[in-house]
Design a protein that fits this description.
The protein is 30% helix and 19% strand. The two termini are 28 Å apart. The mean pLDDT is 92. It folds into two domains: 3-172 and 205-236 and 290-298, 3-Layer(aba) Sandwich (Rossmann fold), CATH 3.40.50.720; 179-201 and 237-284, no CATH class. Helix 3 links the parallel strand 4 and strand 5 (111-117). The chain has 310 residues and is an alpha/beta fold. The protein is globular and about 60 Å long. Strands 3-2-1-4-5-6-12 form a seven-stranded parallel sheet, sandwiched between helices. It has a three-stranded mixed sheet with strand order 8-9-14, covered by helices on one side. Helix 2 (55-64) packs parallel to helix 3 (87-106).
Amino acid sequence: MASVFITGASGMVGMYLTSSLLQKKHKVFAVDSKPNEFIGTNPDYSFTQCDIADKGTIEGIIKGNRIDTLVHLACSVDNDIDSLITDDVMKSSKACDKFIYDAAVDANVTNIVLLSTTDVYGMQKGREPIREDTPEKGSSYYADMKLTSEKFLNKAVKKTNVVPVIARVAPLYTAEYTQNLRDRVYDAKEDVAYIIREGENSFSFCCVFNLIDFINAIVSVPTSRYEGVFNVADTRMISAKEILDYEREHHRIGAVIQKQPSVNLVPISKQRAKTDYRYFDISMALANWHIDNTKAQRISTFRWSLKNTK
């Protein structure tokens, strides 16, 4: 069984990942600034409560134990930070990335999995599927922060035997956590859900279980040469109508109004889009950019969708 070190272990992704790893009898070392429900429940689970910037503590855990895979989830929205990305958050992320990667290299960790984001691709021209070699045009602080983290990782492991795995993950959802879905069909300014035409416009998301399966596949074969950038997203896009129907079925949405589509793909509020990860501009509703997960499917099945997520 593998030995896995998780940063941001008490966030949403960290909790699902921990549960899955422990069920598979892996040994888990975890850190987070907040406690969680796994503490004291399993001899294979070792938790340390500390800030992600606590260099001495984190380096001590990595270097003091045999770690096969380091999964870096900290400093990621949908896991443990707010959607508003500030300069302080970006500076903290840079500092933490550097010492965490360096410690992993010094400790001969087999591979490092970084939770990144499909936001790095930004606005694209045309309707071609977005693949891993698509130019990065992200213009938000969060995209900048994650691209920097990717670059730090690649630099740290260069000329070493550590295998880097960068998971560019589409906005996440679970059966209970649907905020990212709602953001695509809800106008916060008018406080109302909306639909354009028949709601056929679609978006790429990622069921959290597809992400967990992908990480599990990396952990299970740590000495493989799975490395580089992978788009981690559901195989099938989700339409606006499906989101509205799903939320209505679970009594989480009220009246829906119909809106006219925008004729261009120019954000209405560039500054808001730059700082707030969750901000979705209605002018982008018809972009229909598909995140292609073909490369990642060679590692995992991506069997989860909105229809079978429980």
